[in-house]
Amino acid sequence: SSLCDFGAFVDLGGADGLIHLSELSWRRVRHPREVLSLGQEVDVYVLGIDRERRRIGLSLKRLQKDPWSQVEEKYEVGQLVTCTITKLTDFGAFARLEEDIEGLVHISELSDERIEHPREVVEEGQEVTLRIIRIDVSRQRIGLSLRRVEEEEHPELDWQESDQTKAPADLSEQDETE
Q1: How far apart are CA 65 and CA 44, in angstroms?
Q2: What is the pLDDT of residues 12-24, one digit of tens each?
Q3: 38: number of Cβ within 10 Å
Q4: Residue among 36, 2, 29, 6 nearest 16 (CA)
Q5: Which of 5, 18, 52, 82 has its CA 20 to 30 A from that of 122?
Q6: Rounded Cα gap, residues 104 and 96, in angstroms
Q7: Cα gap 144→162, rounded to integer Å
C-alpha cells in the first residue's frame, strides 16, 4: 500500500503490516522500490503480531530459500569467481558473486601497492575475477581478494568441474614437493 525508506506497508485486507527493509530480500536493499512496486500483490510471511502497539511484522525473504545455506557447497577457499563490484567504502569494495550473495574485498586485498581508496583500483558495476580467501557462513561473510588472483600456478583449474581428481589446493601442495 506504500513504500518508505525503512520498508513497505502491505494491506492485509483490514490491517496494514510492515515489511522492514531487512526482510525484503536476502541481498542488500537500499530502498523498497528495488524489490516492490506500489499496488503489487505479494505473498508474505507473518513474523509477529503486536496487538498492544497494533503492529504486524512481515517478511518476503523468509518465503525464499536462504542463499547462504548452499554457499559451502558452491564455493571454497582458493576458488576464482567472477563478481560485480556493487559498493565502494573506505575499507574496501563489496562484490556480488550471485544474486543474493556478496563478499568483501578488503582494501588490503585490492592491490599489492598501498592505496587510499578502493576507487583507485575498481569501480561500481565493474566485473572482476576475484579469489575467495575466507568463508564464514554463520556470519554470512565471504572474504575476497583481487591481489591474490594470480597467486596459484594453475588458476585455470579453478574453473573446472569439482569432480576433477586434483583440486587447486592439491596442486599447490604437489608443486612444493617437486
Answers
A1: 14
A2: 988 899 999 999 9
A3: 10
A4: 2
A5: 5
A6: 9
A7: 20
